[in-house]
Design goal:
The structure holds two protein chains of two kinds. Chain A starts with a strand and ends with a strand. Chain A has no helices and eleven strands. Chain A is mainly beta. In chain B, strand 6 and strand 7 form a beta hairpin. The termini of chain B are far apart. In chain B, strands 1-9-8-3-4 form a five-stranded mixed sheet, with no helix packed on it. In chain B, strands 2-7-6-5 form a four-stranded antiparallel sheet, with no helix packed on it. Chain B is an all-beta fold. Helices cover 0% and strands 49% of the residues of chain B. Classes of the chains: A mainly beta, B mainly beta. At the A-B interface, strand 4, strand 5 and strand 9 of A face strand 4 and strand 8 of B.
Chain lengths: 116, 111
């Protein structure tokens, strides 16, 4: 079991370009969560998805950000027209149906986005 | 979910026991206390979870008093590799809910 796989590990984009971050959950996990972490800060929740459904997007910026978790393939976090303030580490976590109380979540190693 | 408060940073020498205390005054009846560890350039990793009294595993112990308004993560005989950020989270026991992270405690272990 390879765990939660995120790619790319590092992504550099120029202002105005699009960034696509991919997350493959652990085998058997159907719940995916995206978090953003600024330097010296804790992780901030962005969006919670189950297969083909967005369950909670209360942490997503209203513009330029979108997420999907299709029936087949990885979850994608898409940032359109990136700005320097989007530079951060983006982490994905997955859990299975039975996961609750905080112990069933597995995090990936993150994608570090740098906007130049 | 209850807000958590923990020290921003702590220093310790190798071989010492480290105790990190977290306050969560507004914890609800069905909430659990969970601790995660994050190394540089990695995602958080689950350490331990408890509801009340004491929980121990191969990594740490978690002490929770009867009123559950605080908890203490205890790391026995730390080594340099325990240098990391430790997050205290209050998690609902009612189902899949997103984890809410604070700024955590940055532990630096010195040789």
């Amino acid at each position: 079991n390879a765990g939660v796989m995120q790619n790319p590990r590092h992504l550099v984009r120029r202002r105005g370009q699009e960034a696509r971050l991919r997350c493959s959950p652990m085998k058997g996990h159907s719940h995916v969560y995206w978090y953003r972490q600024l330097p010296e800060e804790g992780l901030k929740f962005m969006v919670y998805l189950q297969k083909e459904n967005i369950i909670d997007e209360s942490g997503m910026p209203k513009e330029r950000f979108s997420a999907e978790f299709p029936k087949e393939g990885p979850s994608i976090l898409r940032i359109q027209q990136v700005v320097r303030g989007d530079s951060a580490a983006y982490f994905c976590a997955s859990s299975n149906r039975a996961a609750n109380k905080g112990y069933g979540y597995t995090f990936g190693s993150g994608t570090r986005l740098t906007v130049v | 979910l209850a807000k958590t408060t923990q020290p921003i940073s702590m220093d310790s020498y190798e071989g010492q026991e480290v105790n990190i205390t977290c306050s969560h005054n507004n914890i609800a009846t069905n909430d659990y206390i969970t601790w995660y560890q994050q190394f540089p350039s990695q995602g958080p990793r689950f350490i331990i979870q408890g509801y009340k009294t004491k929980v121990t595993n191969e990594v740490a112990s978690l002490f929770i008093p009867a009123d559950r308004k605080s908890s203490t993560l205890s790391l026995p005989r730390v080594s340099l590799s325990d240098t990391a950020v430790y997050y205290c989270l209050v998690v609902s026991g009612s189902g899949n809910t997103p984890l809410v992270f604070g700024k955590g405690t940055r532990l630096s272990v010195i040789a």
